[in-house]
Each structure stands twice: as C-alpha cells, then as structure tokens.
C-alpha cells in the first residue's frame, strides 16, 4: 500500500514562518545564514507543498487535537449514549464525559489551540502562494487544498465551540493576533465559502503517490455536512447527491471491518482520511512535530482491553448493545446478529448459541479479555449505569488490533503500533446524511433507499414505505442505523445535539443511563472558550451560555 503522502506530512513549515509577526527589534542586525527566512521561502513547489503539509500535520497528530486519540477522539465520543468512560483516568476526559467541564479543561483547550495553529498555517499559505514560481493551475490546486483544510478547521470549531474568532489572513502586528468572536452563523458562512472554493478547485481523485490528500469529493461531503448542521436541508441534499454521480465512484465496500484496519486502505468507501504508516519514532507520539515524528495510529492503545495490551478507557453501554440486538438477521443467515456487531464488539458468542472465537492471533478468549477488564469496569459508579449480569458482558473491538496476529497488538510498547488509516469521512456517512436531508425535505423514498444500502451491507432486509410511512419512523430508523454504523467515529454527540433539545436529551440520557445525565445543561451543547485564550486575548468574551 502506497503511503508516500505521509512522508511529506513530516515536513513542517519553517519555524520562522510559524511565529506571529510582532514588534521587531530593528537594532539587532545579526543574521543567521543557516536559518530559513520568509524571504528565502515561498520560492518553489517544494516550499508550497511543505507548507500545505504543515497544515495537515496538526490535524492528523496521532494523540492531540480533535482527531487525536488521546484528547479529541476520546472526548467527543465520551459525550454520547453508546460508551461509558472510566473515572480515575484523565480528569479532563472524565469532566467532559460527565458534563462537569469548565473553561479550564485542558483537553478542550488542546483541541482549540491545535485548530487555530492549523488555521494560521493555512492563512500563511493563502497569503504567500502567489509568490511561488509554479503554474497557475498548480497554484490554484494548492490554494483549494488549503481552503479545504481551513474550512474543516472552522467547521470543527463552529460545531464544537459556537462563536469563535475568525482569522482569514495572517497576523502581521501584535494587535492582529487578537480578535473578538464572530457569531457562529458567520463562522459557518466562512466554512461554506472555503469548502465551495475547495470543491471547485480540487481534483476528484489523486494519483497513487498522493493518496490521502484532499479531493473535491471530500470538500463536497463536508460542505453537505455543514448544510446539514445548519439545517439547510435542501442544499444539504443537493450537495451530497453530487457524490452519487460521475466523476465520483464512491460505494460501500462489502466488508464493513476493512474501513478500520490496514487490509483494504484507500478503498472506494473512504472519502477523506488521516493517513498513518510505519514512519518516525513509534514510541514518541506525544505532540512532537519534526522529521522523526511518529506516523502511527494509537487508537488501539486507548480502546483495547489490557489482555491485548491496551489501556482500556471505554466500555459499550447496555443501551448500545440492546440497539444491536433489537433486530436479528433472517433465519438461515450465516450469523445471528447484524454483521457489524461482530467487528464492533467482542463477547462470548456461545452465550447466544454461536461458536466462540479468539482474538489477538488466536491467543485470547473472551473470558481472557473480560477478566483483564474488571479492574476498570469496577470503577464505574453508580454500579447501576452498567448491567454486566448474565450475558450482558461486551467489550469494544472496533479500532483495536484484536483482528491482528499479534498477542499484545494494542500495546505500542511491545508491538508495532497500528498503521491503519483513520477514515474520518466515509461514504456510509454521506448516505446517512443524504437520507436525513431527504427525509427532512419530505423525500422519504430517497431516504429509505439510502438507509437500505446501509442495512443490506449489515445483512438486514430492506425496509419499505409500509415499514417507514412517515418522517418520524424514517428518522427513528435513521438514528438507529447511524448509531450502529458510525459508532466511535465522533458523530453520535453531534447527531444528538441536532435531534434533541437540551431538555429532551437530558430525558433520553437519563433513560439510557448516560454518565452525568443529571449535570447536562444547555451550555454543554458547546465547549467554552478556553481560559488561556480569554487571558491572552483582551478582545474576546466567553460564549454567552458559559458566562
């Protein structure tokens, strides 16, 4: 599998260009001839490519930021009704999971900071691309790619923080460093502008050496997602429908699990992904940017059970398991349950009349995995949040290395860390978003058709208009399928916010035994502006819900 693009992402924009231009000490006339300056940079395509790679760099860091396994992924997923997070680990994560976080939360601040660093780098590219000696077409392609990344950053900020500062040019003076927040509607308007430009300027496909870089399809998918989030359902449906026609050939792959392992990477279901590979120091992943930065995927370390070498930070809720068990496959099928369940979860199959399996190269039974998990599971309080009596014993298998041939594959200290890409936009999500938009537009037939494509791959029979006769029933089935399909892919919390008012969601969380349900307030629908930003930026105010 070609992962050449990952190598370019190790090249960071020179430090001189990453510092904010402030007051200059003109009396210091000394010059370091070995240091790259702004005047020496922005000359060749290699410079431009390196600069764009630096924008990717912070977004795909394996542990920190919104897509980092240690901060962003675990925090956003902990907010949903499908996992429980163990107390006593990282206080910042626990507080987010329980809705007791404040503006001082270090994990949310890490996400905020990383996104703005990427935005700053993107703005440098956009401000200096004209200086580079390349063809106009090539320059336009790099600009479109950079606008996609900036649009993705602002989409993530808007959907998680609400009103935020809007920087679209590099700061050149000390005063430029600080801006007040803009209303979230203006931030989304910038997202739409950036992603529209990206859609029109990016190629639909990439050559083998550049797989993993943004395409017009990725821009369309996130543009459609933006319209969905602001509830412009007509534009969402029209935009997402573009991915069903030429020049795009996205489709669902037959084996659901291959979206999350390294067995079938860059497949036809992957719309946009963070590329990982065997590059850099695998044992030094903690926030380092440089030529030897690790390029591995550390999700297995955080999710996997101790018997597989993992830190085991989450367990599936009874509600999530019950949702999988609501509908068995038709008689005569090769499995009793939904096909996705066999990759998403691990459990003792013989408890349900099926043959038991082993994980981690055939070395671990489910009893082994479950025994190793007890120390963390015992920390859940109150105990009523998780019923593990009888056959109610399940663990998360998705994103772990349980499928691999290695005994301790989730532990990056004792085995080669995962090199599986993290697909953050799948065609399955495109179908489900299109289904939601179509349903809200009254086009129930198209919504049902999209949902059925998801169901059929899962080994379930198609639904008909007789089964789903109205908007309420279609949205119920959509919510159910998206819960199962997109588990632990940073979607559930955003969906729940869109579908429930805070009062309704608090009731739902109470009924489903969500941790911290009693603490949920309207303000928890967004994160507060971090304290560090408030202390540094004298022009910004805290978001109204958090004042």
Helix fraction bin: 40-55%
| Basic shape | globular
H/E order of the elements? HHHHEHHHEEHHHEHEHHEHEEHHHHHH
Number of strands: 8
Strand neighbour order, sheet with most strands = 1-5
Task: Output the radius of gyration.
Answer: 23 Å
Poorly predicted runs of 5 or more residues: 6-35
How far apart, in Å, are the first and last alpha carbons?
50 Å
Beta-strand share of residues: under 5%
Count up the helices.
Answer: 20
Largest sheet: 2 strands, antiparallel
Helix-strand makeup class: mainly alpha
Mean pLDDT, all residues:
92
Helix and strand topology:
Blueprint: H1 4-8, H2 15-18, H3 45-59, H4 69-78, E1 83-85, H5 91-97, H6 106-128, H7 136-161, E2 164-165, E3 181-182, H8 184-201, H9 216-229, H10 233-241, E4 270-274, H11 299-303, E5 314-316, H12 318-325, H13 341-344, E6 345-346, H14 366-377, E7 395-396, E8 422-426, H15 427-440, H16 444-457, H17 471-485, H18 492-499, H19 502-511, H20 531-536
Helix pairs in contact: 3-6, 3-7, 4-5, 6-7, 7-8, 7-9, 8-9, 9-10, 9-15, 10-15, 15-16, 15-17, 16-17
The gist of it:
The protein has 547 residues and is mostly helical.
